[in-house]
Specification:
By secondary structure, the protein is mainly α. It has four helices and no strands.
Length: 98
């Protein structure tokens, strides 16, 4: 129920560009980045179930720290995914996931 509410309220990731890219290597890399962003958005939605959007990053870090320690990922990646799910802005991932 929370996941559906987040989907209804938050912006989904932006669609890929409508024009095809001339270089097939660049096009393939763009697809990889788009897939990574889409999966990160889904992870961010899950993080919002654990640490809802009304919590600040500091409070969310307290809630998510144990989870990220157990899965062996940096906490900052989870917080970035959570911010991305809230905003739909890929800039939230720069320096962490992307």
């Amino acid at each position: 129920m929370v996941r559906q509410a987040v989907r209804d309220v938050r912006t989904a990731p932006s669609p890929p560009p409508a024009y095809p890219l001339a270089d097939p290597t660049v096009a393939a890399l763009r697809r990889v980045v788009d897939d990574l962003a889409a999966s990160t958005h889904a992870i961010g939605e899950l993080m919002l179930e654990v640490a809802p959007a009304y919590l600040s990053d500091t409070d969310a870090a307290d809630v998510l720290a144990l989870l990220y320690e157990q899965i062996g990922e940096p906490l900052e990646h989870g917080l970035a995914a959570r911010r991305y799910a809230m905003s739909g802005d890929r800039r939230a991932l720069h320096g962490t996931v992307l």
